[in-house]
Fold this protein.
Amino acid sequence: MLREHGCATAVLPTGLEAAWAGAVAGVATLTAEADVTLDAELDAVDAVVTAAALGIATTGTIVLDHGPDQGRRALTLVPDVHVCVVRAGQVVHDVPEAVARLRPEPGNARPLTWVSGPSATSDIELERVEGVHGPRTLVVVLVDEEV
Amino acid sequence: MTTTTPGPVQETSPVFVGMPKFPTAAREALANTQQRRNLKHATHTIRDKRARVVAEVPEWEALRVAGAEAKDEALAHLGDYLEQLEASLTANGATVHWARDAAEANAIVLGIVQAKGVDEVVKVKSMVTQEIELNEALEAAGVNAWETDLAELIVQLGHDRPSHILVPAIHRNRSEVRDIFRREMAAVGRPAPDDLTDDPARLAEAARLHLREKFLRAKVAVSGANFAVADTGTLVVVESEGNGRMCLTLPDTLVSVVGIEKVLPTWDDLAPMLQLLPRSSTGERMNPYTTMWSGAHDGDGPQDVHVVLLDNGRSHVLADRVGRQALRCIRCSACLNVCPVYERTGGHAYGSVYPGPIGAVLNPMLRGTASDVDKSLPYASSLCGACFDACPVRIDIPELLVELRGRVVEQEGRTAESAAMAAAAWVLSDPKRLSAAQRAATTAGRLLGDRTIRTVPGLGAWSNARDVPTPPTETFRQWWSRERGRGPDERPRRDPGPRPRGDRRRDDHPRRPRADHRRRGALARPRRDPRPLRRERRRLPGRGSARRPAGRRR
Ligand code: SF4
């Protein structure tokens, strides 16, 4: 996937599963989350590979709660390609189910980012243009755990 | 009602002071054919998309009710929920400020910005900061406020005003946008590329590059919020482009200005809201990005988080038993896109950052009805009801408009319309006057041919908003005398002679004895009882009673 999008460098969140990190290592030069402290450094990285908190079937949404396997918010925002791995067991049916599962814990609230497609605008004559500020390419990999 | 108003009324900002009343501004807008074409295309496109995704949800009506109930609960106990919101935000590490009006809110934001020693902020599109004219206040103090939403950027660079809640640059087409980018970008940052075309993808790319520089550099961001959840202390921003995520994530300091009506009692209330808003607003099942943050999050995003809770006329609306429901508004803009008036006039004629049907009710309530534009706004509607049907939180906009019209009339006393009605009553109550008026009108009719009359001398304002059909060249009575040789006045009161079949059938109707007689005599007999006037007018020749049910609105 990364090869297809011509990504030479990728950043990985600290807690990403080792197997996935290994797979990416064969394709792109890796940087650890801790090594890119400045947003400008992050801007030079091509791609980011993360997990997700859950997925919503009806609306085609992934939700990030920016836990250790997803990294801080800037990580999934600044690079131009975001590859997000969602396990089938993480997918809920609809929005109310997702809201119920994501209720912030008092004292330990996490920020949430709901992503339902690549960054897009229809501001000029309502013609849809994909890719304004967020990652212009979003690839969601759905993993069937039974296999 | 103005005597018992608690809370401050919102001040009309200098930008809109002296704004002409709606019909005047609308007439100008109507003459702008380019804008009308853009608007028609835009409103119809979004309207159709919305209809499709709403139709997918069988329980849509139940969602609307749930959304309205969540908002009503919040509004009914607003003070309590605001205090709870403040407590949970504070527990999450945010600083909460309270602002009574625009001046206080602007001073608070400016204070935070100045304490950071910076001269620029990046902004997420937010109606409330437009309402308080924060950009102008910051600029006056030497702080640049960069709008980062693409449409807002177009508006800002074009030294223009937004015309739609959701797509503020709906009145500009692509070549205008290209010209604005080429002309203005260089002065405020990274210039537009020399070979920029009017392809929307190229224009968006130019904006991406121009703004990325600002996102990476800015130390302070200013946002609004779509929802503020009281029990968890969470703010929510719903967006499409990712500029919101940039502003809410990269700078170290984040100031969010939030109208007090944005509060939701509990986290679970987000479930209906997050289904209602995207479908109603952009016609999507879900918008591309939604960001939720609960104060400051350790090591992630802004560490200095401020929330300014703004009243600015809202508690004034809250005190209004009927008007209160307008505060449920989640600014989805569905009512704009279905409104036949908005579709033709665009947003600028409403003289406020809140245009369209909701603007027509919200502005006069937030600001009072003292100015020309606010007085005229409740009339900027045909009361067709499309806005209520589209509204995800079931705000009965037509009901509010009628209520506000009543208040404007009470406040104004005798208006052109009431004078016109009085004059009409005087004419209609005497057959001699009526027949003189009719003769005068038919003379005018013969002179005018088939043209539509746009103004009637002497009825000025009243006929300005209504086109009067050209009077016929002959009255019924004139026709009758010509055809039958004598006027209906001379006919005996009870006509025993043969009647046309259609009339007989109606005459036989047990509940309407003598309908035929009344119909023919309506113009002839001096009227004694003023009450049946309306019924009889409906049965004037040429407007058979058969049309009545069809002409009725539900
Ligand atoms: S009044 Fe209703 S339809 Fe109009 S913007 Fe507000 S929530 Fe949307």
Q: What stands out?
A: Chain A touches chain B through 47 residues (CB under 8 Å).
